[in-house]
Write a structure and sequence with these properties.
CATH topology of the largest domain: Aspartate Aminotransferase, domain 2
Bound molecules: pyridoxal-5'-phosphate
Oligomer: single chain
Number of domains: 2
Helix content: 25-40%
CATH superfamily of the largest domain: Type I PLP-dependent aspartate aminotransferase-like (Major domain)
Number of helices: 13
CATH class of the largest domain: Alpha Beta
Strand order of the largest sheet: 4-12-11-10-7-5-6
Mean pLDDT: 98
């Protein structure tokens, strides 16, 4: 074992069961390990490096800001976060942005906004939030409570009070739960990522949105994974023709630097006041300058290229030998394989393709600008490995 792998085992907390690969460099959708072996990156750091490794435009934007000012407290004005917030609001119709550093923090902000809004509108007894079974919303004690998967809860009880879970795509069950409780908000992913890359039914999500609006229950869409072009639209909800009250995002937003955001709609834009919330690093100038270079490039034409690549993936893998099903949206793809997914990932690694998993599925989240040639090469290897 290399010295880095040994020291990692010795000094890094044991929370990650890493693959036996050390990545030392990369370019675009290619990365290289300590022995110079080449891999096609089909995970993009779990949907983070939206334009790949060391994308020149992103590096340029980040470097330029790095040479101006790397950080100021939120006690002063800085330009990058304002420019980014304006861009996000103009592209979506949301009114205000709160910046944090991660997906979990973006969700925490949304939860605080929902609690305050509901307390003001309906009284302090109205604080419960409905989320979906099989969802994933983060690792903090509160976002774990929101996460509708018991496996993440055990060993960390008691979690934050006030979260109710209901099955995805069962509107009647959700309505019943909502009518029997005082509900501040409904929070969901429009494509469940960690849960197995499963898109919600359109009818379910539009019914939920309508019901929430009628009952002044806030609709929060967790776009941490589905956001920033990943599904073929700028944000996942845009595939459904709905308008949430709040969306949260992170992962691909920063393009490789830690950045999270909660986008607040008309109803809630003024809920948070001075001192209600904050983050030392939130809206960091470097992270925001990088994010601006990401978001400003995700236009109609670019999204069409994401959709075209998505079609290529679905066409190539659907019905292939050893593949039971292909699910997801855009370049967020889940593959149910006949072989154990662990074996498939290990063999893909061996053959120079880095893939992710989600539960018992193979998960692909390539950079949005992956070259068609590399994508085709990776899909061919995945196909061969799945065929056993
Ligand atoms: C990854 C993820 C999170 C948590 O994001 P972190 O940046 O790891 O805190 C929350 N929600 C969804 C849907 C995610 O995919």
């Amino acid at each position: 074992m290399s010295i880095i792998k040994e020291k990692d085992k010795k000094y890094i907390a044991n929370t990650y069961n890493r693959f036996p690969i050390e990545i030392v460099s990369g370019k675009g959708s290619l990365v290289f390990d300590e022995n110079g072996k080449r891999y096609i990156d089909m995970g993009s750091g779990i949907g983070v490096t939206s334009f790949g490794i060391s994308d020149p435009e992103w590096v340029g934007a980040v470097s330029e800001q790095l040479n101006k000012v790397q950080h100021m407290s939120n006690l002063y004005y800085t330009e990058p976060c304002v420019k980014l917030a304006e861009l996000l609001c103009e592209a979506t119709g949301f009114k205000k942005v709160f910046f944090g550093n991660s997906g979990a923090e973006a969700d925490e902000c949304a939860i605080k906004v929902a609690r305050k809004y509901a307390a003001q509108k309906k009284g302090s007894g109205c604080y419960k939030i409905i989320t979906l079974i099989n969802s994933f919303h983060g690792r903090t004690v509160t976002t774990l409570a929101a996460t509708g998967q018991e496996v993440f809860h055990k060993d960390f009880l008691p979690l934050t009070d006030g979260f109710l879970h209901t099955p995805a795509n069962d509107f009647e069950a959700l309505k019943k739960l909502a009518s029997e409780n005082e509900i501040a908000a409904i929070m969901l992913e429009c494509v469940q990522g960690e849960g197995g890359v499963i898109a919600l039914d359109k009818e379910f999500l539009t019914s939920v949105a309508e019901y929430a609006a009628e009952n002044d229950i806030l609709l929060i869409v967790d776009e941490v994974q589905t956001g920033n072009g990943r599904t073929g639209e700028l944000y996942g909800y845009m595939n459904y023709g709905i308008m949430p009250d709040i969306i949260t995002t992170a992962k691909g937003l920063g393009g490789g630097l830690p950045l999270g955001a909660a986008l607040l709609g008309e109803k809630v834009e003024s809920v948070l006041g001075f001192g209600d919330h904050g983050s030392t690093y939130g809206g960091n100038p470097i992270a925001c300058a990088g994010a601006y270079s990401v978001i400003s490039r995700i236009d109609k034409e670019f999204l069409a290229s994401v959709k075209a690549k998505s079609e290529l993936v679905f066409k190539t893998l659907s019905g292939a030998k050893g593949i039971e099903s292909v699910s997801g949206m855009g370049l967020m793809i889940g593959i149910k394989t006949e072989r154990s997914v662990k074996e498939v990932v290990a063999e893909c690694n061996e053959r120079g393709v880095l893939c992710l998993t989600a539960k018992d599925k193979l998960r692909l989240l390539p950079a949005l600008n992956i070259e068609t040639e590399l994508l085709t090469e990776a899909l061919e290897i995945i196909k061969q490995v799945c065929a056993g």
